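PROTEIN–LIGAND DATA SHEET

This sheet pairs a single protein chain with one bound small molecule, magnesium ion, given as SMILES. Inputs appear in the order they were entered. The predicted three-dimensional arrangement of chain and ligand is reported afterwards as a token string under its own label.
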Amino acid sequence: MKRGLFITFEGPDGSGKTTVSTAVTKQLEKDGYKVRYTREPGGSKIAELIRNLILDPENTDMDARTEALLYAASRRQHLVDKVLPALEEGITIISDRFVDSSLAYQGCGRQIGIDEVYEINLFAIENHLPDKTIFLNIDAETGLERIAKGRTYLDRLDQESIEFHERVHEGYQKVIEKYADRMIVVDASREVEEVVQQTYQIVKGLLDEAGNA
Ligand SMILES: Nc1ncnc2c1ncn2[C@@H]1O[C@H](COP(=O)(O)OP(=O)(O)OP(=O)(O)O)[C@@H](O)[C@H]1O
Ligand SMILES: [Mg+2]
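PREDICTION REPORTED AS:
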């Protein structure tokens, strides 16, 4: 059986990852494609427990490298429990965030370094990098403004300073350059519908090209 494609969505907070990736998945399902939306920890019990530890606003004294290791651990469990079995069944996975989030948030936001964070993540994911990554590009401030409008609860990372989010944004720009061959950059500052339609066409094109109807 043909293996599913592994497609990830990345971008700063409030860039529209969840909005766009869920809309695109729904539209592709309607067209009859075998696609599944997921996000870490994605209902994997162990991955969920690890993630709760990371995001608990009470854990203000968490060390940056501890945070990076916990994300990598949660990512691996979700990969093994949810992503790999689906790909093997021929289902395309659309993942709302994956390894590049750690490169940007822990590598640059927390200033551990992209290459260091990449190394521990490679241990966690082995060779299972995304086939393609849709990068929703937007400046840090616009993203945070969108989130402030729509949300009442802020987790430990949402509460970080604007300087942290600016570093995350810079980190993502480095990641785009570094992994240019799997990155597809979409301008996410436009109207939701425009972003969804362009992204839908891109992902549909990838599936058709790979023969994953
Ligand atoms: N293109 C857009 N224009 C205006 N508002 C948008 C756009 N895309 C998403 N939004 C709104 O911005 C807010 C954040 O969107 P969303 O949750 O999809 O972003 P996200 O990238 O998943 O954020 P997070 O990183 O926090 O998970 C939501 O209220 C959403 O409705
Ligand atoms: Mg989201």
